[in-house]
From TrEMBL:
Polar residues composition-biased segments: 627-636
Listed name of the protein: Fibronectin type-III domain-containing protein
Organism taxonomic ancestry: Eukaryota, Metazoa, Chordata, Craniata, Vertebrata
Biased composition annotated in UniProt, kind: Basic and acidic residues: 580-590
Gene giving rise to this polypeptide: il12rb1
Entry keywords, A to Z: Membrane, Transmembrane, Transmembrane helix
């Protein structure tokens, strides 16, 4: 309309040039053009089937900043008026789908309007899917697997674009186009050559493959793809006993940064709560890397799994064994045949060689139905040892163990004899016996004791001697045997029902040996050796306590100094002095006394004659002084005085012994 009126404005402008009329006409033209330019023609609409419902959607676009724009959509002669958005949803019953139709859009902006170009289409040939939603992702060995809801049962063509994740998004986008496959009403594609150790940002769009005029859907929202969780959490466990329950504190390191893009959740499960015993808390979900849970005294397995948008980590399995108890007794009473409340749980662990295994547990709770409880009771086997637990759930939802003991539904005799029954250290009167305990699976009851029997093998009548041994022993010393005798020895386990098979061995005691002569000689030698050592030690002690008399020191007596330096020194050594008995009536020595040596001595340098010569020389002029002569005379007079005193002793014998400068005086009664 604006283009048709333009020549008239132009002619009048030319006629009125140079006058006021020309200015008015130009002003009116510019005003009209400015009003018409406010409406820009919208794009040609595209109408398509979404496959999501029974409606068709028509979309167009328009470059305008006005907010009060109204649209009219035309389908041949059909008109849909007063549309305020750039799209419209029309039920398929109002449209002619299989014949060509002309469609266009008319826009109204204020007092002006503009129209898009017309387009002739067959509506049934044009299909556009909605953008993919709720996309699930998971890592495979050869790439990334993407899944989303399928629009129809036919496969679609998908375009995937991805970008390696970083803080500033500087990486370039890459595009991959591939056909989808359908599995469980889900489209899925696998994008290869992507590193599972890196994080990505991913978008998807898809389009159908069957229609003649398929349209690409809009891009999906950006999906954050974290790296694969390749390892399980490294869990450390701290356990603490608290009033019949165990407080289990679990901590582990955070997952790697690339695997933590988006968010990481953790799932914790334990076998006790998964069986509903006794507090029914099956699975725990949380976001932090530590958790505290409570379990009873029975064995339990705890698993911790990390989960991100791309999948799950391998589970970290923590095996918490049953709390050990020394000397578990047999159960005197159980609640197996009693009515249980909902807060009570019974567990029976099938013991295999003394070990409790959580996979062999029978659980009975008050939450189970009566028929189910009867089936559980019937599943308890005869002759099988069980570890029996009674648990209860407190008001704070913490399981607590109130009883544990060993249980047999029915007992029997052992199936096997004690294993590896062997003798050792055989002597003439004893032997050491050892064996391995009967496996618990073969005991079939509680062992009360072992029965040990011995039979002496001889030509005479055999006598069987038996004794009971504690069931906790695995060795025994058998004594009071006869030397040089052959015995049959047997051992069997005994339960309250009876005695099991016997393990039998044959031994020969050693003959009695005579006393060894060599040992006797060694004993005698040892006795004398010890006696000698003791004597020597006693003498040493005596010498320490009573030391010997010390040798007196006799100072040198020099009556005079020789005047001549050439005179030789002389030294007297007295060896022995013997005195004979003198009778009182005799005042002088007998004549024959000269034959008896009264004094024996010798000089160091010369004989007696030399001594006499020296004495003679001493009386010579120029010899010794008068002082020396007076000394000799004094000695002789002293000796004569001593002899006179000895004559006065009645019935006594005096004997003086000179030895090495010592004088010993021995007196005896006269005969």
């Amino acid at each position: 309309m604006i283009l048709l009126d333009f020549p008239l404005y132009l002619m009048e402008t030319l006629k009125c040039r140079g006058s006021l009329c020309g200015f008015v006409v130009v002003f009116m033209f510019l005003t009209t053009v400015s009003k018409g330019s406010a409406c820009h023609a919208p794009s040609t609409p595209q109408c398509f089937e979404t496959k999501a419902d029974e409606f068709y959607i028509c979309e167009w676009s328009m470059n305008t900043t006005e907010s009060d724009v109204m649209f009219d959509l035309y389908f041949k002669k059909n008109r849909f008026r007063n549309i305020k958005t750039t799209w419209s949803k029309i039920h398929r019953d109002k449209l002619n789908l299989f014949t060509p139709v002309d469609l266009w859009v008319e826009a109204h902006v204020g007092n002006s309007s503009c129209t898009s170009t017309k387009k002739s289409v067959i509506l049934s040939n044009t299909v556009k899917y909605e953008a993919p939603q709720k996309i699930s992702i998971s890592w495979l060995k050869n790439g990334l697997k993407l899944r989303w809801a399928a629009v129809e049962q036919n496969s679609a063509l998908a375009e995937v674009r991805f970008q390696r994740h970083d803080e500033h998004h500087t990486e370039l986008w890459e595009n991959r186009t591939t056909n989808t496959t359908i599995e469980s009403s889900m489209y899925q594609v696998i994008v290869t050559n992507m590193s599972k150790h890196s994080a990505y940002r991913v978008q998807i769009r898809h389009r159908p493959t069957q229609p003649r005029n398929p349209l690409w859907s809009d891009w999906s929202p950006v999906v954050m793809v974290p790296a694969e969780l390749e390892r399980s959490p490294e869990v450390s466990v701290t356990t603490r006993l608290v009033n019949g329950t165990r407080r289990v504190m679990l901590t582990w390191k955070p997952m790697p940064h690339t695997a933590s893009v988006g968010k990481v959740n953790y799932t914790l499960k334990d076998t006790q709560s998964s069986r509903g015993c006794p507090c029914e808390e099956r699975t725990h979900h949380f976001k932090w890397n530590k958790y505290t849970t409570y379990i009873s005294y029975s064995a339990a397995n705890i698993s911790v799994i990390a989960r991100n948008a791309a999948g799950y980590s391998p589970p970290a399995i923590i095996q918490v064994p049953a709390v050990p108890a020394a000397d578990l007794k047999s159960c005197d009473k159980t609640l197996l045949n009693e009515k249980l409340n909902k807060q009570t749980c019974l567990e029976l662990y099938d013991l295999q060689d003394g070990d409790s295994r959580s996979e062999n547990v029978i659980t009975l709770t008050g939450r189970k139905k009566k028929k189910e409880r009867e089936q559980i009771r019937e599943s308890i086997k005869d002759y099988v040892r069980y570890l029996y637990f009674e648990h209860t759930c407190d008001g704070d939802r913490k399981p607590r163990t109130v009883k544990r003991c060993l249980f047999y539904k029915k007992e029997g005799v052992p199936l096997r004899e004690p294993q590896d029954f062997t003798p050792s250290s055989e002597t003439d009167h004893s032997v050491d016996l050892s064996w391995k305990a009967i496996p618990s699976v073969d005991q079939r009851g509680f062992l009360t004791h072992y029965s040990l029997c011995r039979v002496k093998i001889s030509s005479q009548e055999e006598h069987k001697d038996c004794q009971n041994i504690s069931a906790s022993l695995i060795n025994h010393r058998l004594e009071n045997l006869t030397p040089g005798t052959k015995y049959n020895i047997s051992l069997a386990g005994v339960t309250r029902v009876g005695e099991g098979p016997r393990a039998t061995i044959t031994i020969n005691t050693q003959p009695k040996k005579p006393v060894n002569v060599l040992w006797s000689l060694l004993f005698l030698f040892g006795f004398f050796f010890i006696s000698t050592v003791c004597t020597f030690i006693l003498k040493r002690i005596k010498n320490k306590i009573f030391p010997p008399v010390p040798t007196p020191v006799i100072p040198d007596f020099t009556p005079c100094q020789p005047e001549s330096q050439q005179m030789l020194e002389r030294k007297e050594e007295v060896h022995e002095l013997t005195l004979h008995q003198l009778h009182p009536e005799r005042k002088s020595l007998p004549e024959d006394a000269e034959e008896t040596p009264v004094f024996r001595g010798k000089w160091d340098d010369g004989t007696d004659e030399d001594a006499e010569d020296e004495r003679g020389d001493s009386r010579m002029p120029g010899g010794s002084s008068d002082e020396c002569l007076s000394t000799d005379q004094a000695l002789r007079s002293s000796r004569e005085g001593e002899m006179t005193d000895m004559d006065q002793v009645d019935n006594e014998i005096a004997m003086l012994i000179y030895r090495n400068g010592l004088v010993f005086d021995v007196k005896t009664d006269s005969t």
